[in-house]
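Protocol step 4 of 6: structure prediction from sequence.
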Amino acid sequence: MAKETAMEKRRKGNFLRHMERHWPYYVMMAPGVIYLALFKYIPMLGSVIAFQDFSIVRGVFGSAWTGLANFRKLFQYDDFYKILRNTLILGGLKLVIVFPIPVILSLMLNEIRNQKLKKGIQTVICVPYFLSWVIVGGLVFDIFGAGGLFNNIRNALGMDTVLVMQKESWFRPIYVISSIWKEAGYGTIVYLAAISGIDPGIYESASIDGARRSQQMRLITLPLLVPTVLTIFLLNIGSFLELGFEQVYNLYTPMTYSVADIFDTYVYRSGIQQGQYSFSTAVGLFQSVVGLILVVTFNKLSQKYSDDGGLW
């Protein structure tokens, strides 16, 4: 016992000396740790509301327990499967169409030899990321509205005006296009950073062996970029059912609810507007559990089929 105590003291002393030596790094890390604790981990305790008939007046400790009643209500809700279908479809479109675009853009930008042109293009495609979805939604409505650019061109060609934003068939294409325009450019930053970390000697050796630029991109750059792509993919999978309230809320209309309504917008209407806090928490917990299952599953698959894959 004394030996263990002495070992623990030695470890504690080593840790304290390590902190004293590297205290600036701990100070820089502190805001991020505090942020995670206050806004990510502590709010997880509020998930208990999903198993209660929560009342603001009675609080968490005074509200009655209802067990799984809120989850049964969710699964028996008439529009549950419609909302689930919309969420899965939009999430699938993001993964299949939107996710690969930054990878393709980064590979194309990497082939540009003129650095000024390369940085200029990267700056232009990154700017939309810093616009809020309120602004982007307003631009989309202005372009596709009855008097917008899209219909003006149609009218000039002798075609009738189309109320694009009120048509169900148009919502998903607009959702995908707006996602690509706003997010794809910023996503290239991570991939270009990964590409810049590739040893130039590999390209030199391939060039000496007679490999063309296209072959170097296909046989060197892309394979070495796969671990980064897998990591980003796993991070996106975790939020598969959390598509982002802002984008859908600023793009959909009551006429497109049937194809646009997702869990996030439904939680806003039922939780915030109607005051069903326990029910909306149950929906959020359901999303989180599904996201956790997807991350663990795909992480195992990536570890199985890729030596460098996986988050842990």
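Step 5 (inspection) to follow. The first strand starts at residue 52 and ends at 53.
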